[in-house]
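Internal QA ticket QA-208
Title: Verify multi-chain structure generation after dependency bump
Assignee: T.L.

Test input:
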Amino acid sequence: MLLIRNGRVIDPATQTDALRDVLLDGNKIVEVAAPGQIQLDAHTCEIFEATGLIVAPGFIDLHAHLREPGQESSETIETGTKSAARGGFTAVCCMPNTRPVNDNASVTRFILDRAKTSASVRVWPIGAASVGSKGEAIAEIAAMREAGIVAVSDDGKPIATAKLTRQVMDYCRSLDLPVIEHSEDVSLAAGAVMREGVTSTRLGLPGMPAAAESVCVARDVQLAELTGARLHVAHMSAKASLEQVRWAKSRGLRVTCEVTPHHFTLIDEDVQYDSRYKMNPPLAAREDRKALIEGLADGTVDAIATDHAPHEPALKDVEFDRAPFGILGFETALALALEQLVHSGRISLMRLVDLFTTGPACVLQVARKIWPGEPGDLTIFSFDHPWTYDVKQSPSKSRNSPFDARTFKGGPMATIVAGKIVFQR
Amino acid sequence: MTYRFRDLLALEPLNADELTFLLDQSKPFQEIQRHPLKKLATLRGKTVALAFFENSTRTRISFGTAASRLGADTMNLQAEASSVKKGESLLDTVHTLNAMKPDCLVIRHSASGAADFVARHLDIPVINAGDGTHEHPSQGLLDALTMRDRKGSLENLNITILGDISHSRVARSNIHLLAKFGCRFTLCGPAMWVPRELESIGPPGASIRRVFRIEEALEDADVVLVLRVQTERLHEPALSAGDYILLYQLSAERLRLAKPDAIVLHPGPMNRGIEITPEVADGAQSCVLEQVTNGIAVRMALLFLLTSGVAEEGAVAAAENQPKESTHASH
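Actual output:
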């Protein structure tokens, strides 16, 4: 038994924002009550003093790369989920662009087996939409669903053609799985290493226009209307894409989207040939960032997702245009959201928790609340505890974070998965 | 006045006084090019590493000649013959070169930002001899020196740049330098080579406009900078060579639309008959060969300043001088 005592429970699912004691037994929540109301045996019960802290349902990251199997020099399920736990995440959806690609049930089972023996948090695999994510034939999605995938995506790139996207959507509608799309017109983005704009022009780096993303989002929302499928737009960076999603939602389509912390924090002007600022989609323009923050505030954006993309130093410490896309994300996500969205007065704490919990849970159609009988997954965080991120201390195998040495106000204090404390600051 | 940086990576961060200083420092070395005996002993005992990761003939020879006329030794790395082909990373290659203890590294690389990247990892002065489509600072300086000699001053000139400006490091270095002297720029070429973002790359208040008709672009020009049409880019689904000649080739007839005393510069190597006619290239208004001679003078001045120790006092490593990370909490 584990008692989380006297924390401020913020739970969007039950619309709770009050001091509560939360009792966990085994892997479940068994009781939620006003402080001091729960009768318990002090000898058999572990107590976590949460006075002054916020107790939220367990955070879900819809978008991460754990690199196992195949690129274990950059990350493994063990190191990645340790890092996720430090970031307050209790469940991580891992993208299928491993080597081999997670496009069949045996790879899905391998990932889940590795997770069972080595993961600190829940690992929810995402299966490839097409065989090898090559955009030619539909992958064995039903078999992967049996094995445990929660969604499909060809992430790293879009599903190659409109026709295949339509087929995947039709199929996933019948299987009731969301289709997560990395929205990019690859011909418009070809050769680009950052967002096209004054900064890319000044730096002489090939840029992709915002339209490289938004034309693909436009394609996909129309296909979502055609098929009735659940479309989730991954790591959305452009204002024009957000407008497409807004349009889709206004028509009642089952379209959702996520935004990463780096896209609501940084902009293309921050790029200074430092490959830690290189990711795909690239850092966008000032007005895109502003629009994304508005979307996070007004409810258009459903979730904050990290797109945690580790690359070992040998791969990343090269010329900017040769470095792979992607940055670390788990450990700074909550703190950046507090800094950029809550402390700046743009959103409430309730909305922040929603973006990390009920928002992503709705995308996956799973429950996420602090209620008796629910899984014992909790994220406990501080609103104002000052701390400095030191990437060298990260359990991740990679170091590619632009936020190294940044000082934050508030962040994860403990992560509880299935009734067990897997991280505590 | 001294030069306050350890490296020369770009002209963008330099102010008008610093640029004037660099141009003035080149004057005595221009004199030397006219002497029958051109070799000095100024940098005797010093070693200059020339690391050319991208094909280059004139810039490499120019830096090599500049070093040798100062009495320095050179070590040469050329991409074709180097370990780069064997898969060695840029960082390992320059660390290896650095371990041979040169006093300065001159780098040419096809990646924008390569010189900046290398400078962040080395403790010796780094001179950017052209990085991708970013900057080519010594070319910008030699162009400005040529213009100043011919025009008497750099103040308020009308500069017309013709060609593929979006992919030109020469154009960028020229804009960053000349804009600080109040020059007005007219950029002219097909729209995909002259994106509108170019109007905003200069310092605040810089006058940079785009014009798509060469006749209009040449009106009132004091200087016409003709860029090399990289013929490989013509294979992109963009423009045919025939169309380019029709629309943008600098011919004697078109040049008459510029001021009568306008001068013509070209960074070389020229595609005669494509971006420029032989008549213009060899005409009285052409400065092409002066540019080459001035290139040695400018590079001698740079090597002298950065390796002789005169700039050491107060010199700042570029890495320290640039904003490593800016936060945008306020916008």
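Spot checks passed. The domain at 58-364 of chain A is CATH 3.20.20.140 (TIM Barrel).
Status: verified.
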